[in-house]
Specification:
Elements: H1 21-30, E1 45-46, H2 58-65, H3 75-88, E2 92-96, H4 99-110, E3 116-119, H5 124-132, E4 136-139, H6 160-174, E5 178-181, H7 194-207, E6 211-214, H8 218-228, H9 237-246, E7 250-254, E8 265-269, H10 272-285, H11 296-308, H12 312-331, E9 344-348, H13 349-352, H14 362-374, E10 376-377, E11 379-381, E12 388-389, E13 395-396, E14 402-406, H15 414-429, E15 437-441, E16 452-455
This protein binds ligand F0G.
Residues 49, 51, 98-100, 123, 125-126, 181, 185, 214, 216, 254, 256, 265 line the site of ligand F0G.
Subunit structure: Homotetramer.
GO molecular function, one term: carbon-carbon lyase activity
Protein name: Tryptophanase
Length: 456
């Protein structure tokens, strides 16, 4: 059959708010024209993030009832540990309440002022945790990723030559570890190939620098490898994932993505002395090492979810959904980053709104237009989120003005996405009317969450 169906049926529903344009306009104005400040009840299709927003399966809910809430040594912890080890084979595994908690423990225990952490693309919390301890987060994306529209595969790869130059210049003393993010969220959800990971590892080994995987979307990355990297079409996603983790010395993970859970994460490593430091800080700030900030039932849900994320039929359906929306938008001429990412579609707001400059925040205009048109919530990844300010306060634009439509896992059906396509198409046709925005109120850091805007 040609039609790739959702490999599940629905046995519980959640009502969607169906809203009127006049209400949406009123709600957006009350939220300072920032969709982060909207009540979720005002949103019809919420594509703000794919993090913690997935639907759990009946198997996960059933496992949750078996959650063992013992403080120490619970059965649920053993099950969680066994599953994570089965996939990653790391010697030491620590549960955390979400991904950034793992990042914080890694950064706080391994980094000192002036250290450097290279990555193909740091996520904003990863960067913030590294910078918080006085170290520098450096992005080394592949040159191919600079062309938003090229159909090249594995645009999430790290620039190995740039990594070699950085290592030669700074050496192991300044670089306590290197990270690789699969898939590269900030780079458009683009995957990393096993070949690239192997080459990165070889370079790092020469200098004795460990490799840490930011593994949030490891299963989606494994599916890209199966589909597009030579030699893997017959390999199971579990075996591909194992091969990815075999190249690393540790991992940070947000189980809110490919753990198919609403909360949770972990930190893992092989080094015994690192593990001692991780354990000590974990106890101080997250919890005892057999629950680490999670309930026993959460550990159960994640253990089941990690394995469900590696089911080929699930990944085939998920990638087909993203590609379905991407193809429809390309056919309508809407500018999107190609190829489509694993968890999201990224609209190029600068090309969408050629009448606006970066200082007009075209991403904000586009996000707000999508909300007013159809109650669809997306997120700006442009100069509001990634722009910086010169010492005199002048805005320095981000390299790209993107808008991300993230796909929650197993939540929306094809008709929901047909609706999203129609909303984007309507906004695209009327794009000349998208206004410029000015910031009227902002926080000194991570301003995108709370800033208030005014349309001109
Ligand atoms: N790393 C990556 C690549 C991420 O995308 C995220 C979260 C994290 C780390 C942090 O994990 O949220 O569990 O603390 N990304 C979400 C998003 C928030 O919308 O892309 P967390």
């Amino acid at each position: 059959m040609q039609t790739i169906i959702e490999p599940f049926r629905i046995k519980m529903t959640e009502a969607l708010p169906i809203t009127r344009r006049s209400d949406r306009e009123k709600n957006l104005a009350a939220a300072g024209h920032n969709v982060f400040l909207l009540d979720a009840d005002a949103v019809t299709i919420d594509l703000l993030t794919d993090s913690g927003t997935g639907a759990m399966s009946d198997r996960q809910w059933a496992a949750m009832l078996e959650g063992d809430e013992s403080y120490a040594g619970s059965r649920s912890w053993r099950r969680f540990e066994k599953t994570v080890r089965e996939i990653t084979n790391f010697r030491h595994i620590f549960p955390t309440h979400q991904g950034r908690a793992a990042e914080r423990i890694l950064a706080a225990t391994r980094l000192r002022t002036g250290d450097i952490v290279p990555n193909n693309g740091h996520f904003d919390t990863t960067r913030a945790n590294i910078e918080y301890v006085g170290a520098r987060a450096i992005n080394l994306p592949s040159p191919e990723s600079q062309d938003l529209y090229s159909e090249t595969r594995f645009k999430g790869n790290m620039d190995v030559a740039a990594l070699e130059r950085l290592l030669a210049r700074e050496g192991r003393r300044r670089i306590p570890f290197c990270m690789i993010t699969v898939t590269n969220n900030t780079g458009g959800g683009q995957p990393v190939s096993l070949d690239n990971m192997r080459r990165v590892k070889r370079v790092l080994d020469k200098h004795g620098v460990p490799l840490i995987i930011d593994a949030c979307r490891f299963a989606e990355n494994a599916f890209f490898i199966k589909e597009h990297e030579a030699g893997y079409s017959e390999t199971s996603l579990l075996d591909i994932a194992r091969e990815m983790f075999s190249l690393a010395d540790g991992a940070t993970m947000s189980a809110k993505k490919d753990g198919l859970a609403n909360i949770g994460g972990f930190l893992a490593c092989n080094d015994d002395s690192w593990a001692v430091d991780f354990r000590n800080l974990l106890i101080l700030t997250e919890g005892f090492p057999t629950y680490g900030g999670l309930a026993g039932r959460d550990l159960e849900a994640i253990a089941v979810g990690l394995m469900e994320a590696l089911e080929a039929d699930y990944q085939r359906y998920r990638h087909a959904t993203v590609e379905y929306v991407a193809a429809a938008l390309v056919a309508r001429g809407a500018p999107i980053v190609r190829p489509a990412g694993g968890h999201a579609i990224f609209l190029d707001a600068a090309a969408f709104c050629p009448h606006l400059t970066a200082s007009d925040f075209p991403g904000v205009g586009l996000v707000n237009a999508l909300f007013v048109e159809g109650g669809v919530r997306a997120v700006e990844l442009g100069s509001v989120m990634f722009g910086t300010r010169a010492p005199d306060g002048a805005e320095i634009a981000a390299p790209h003005e993107l808008v991300r439509l993230a796909f929650p896992r197993r939540v929306y059906t094809q008709s929901h996405f047909d609706y999203v396509i129609e909303v984007i198409d309507q906004v695209f046709r009327a794009r000349a009317s998208i206004p410029a925005y000015r910031i009227v109120e902002q926080a000194p850091f991570l301003r995108h969450f709370t800033a208030r805007f005014m349309p001109l």
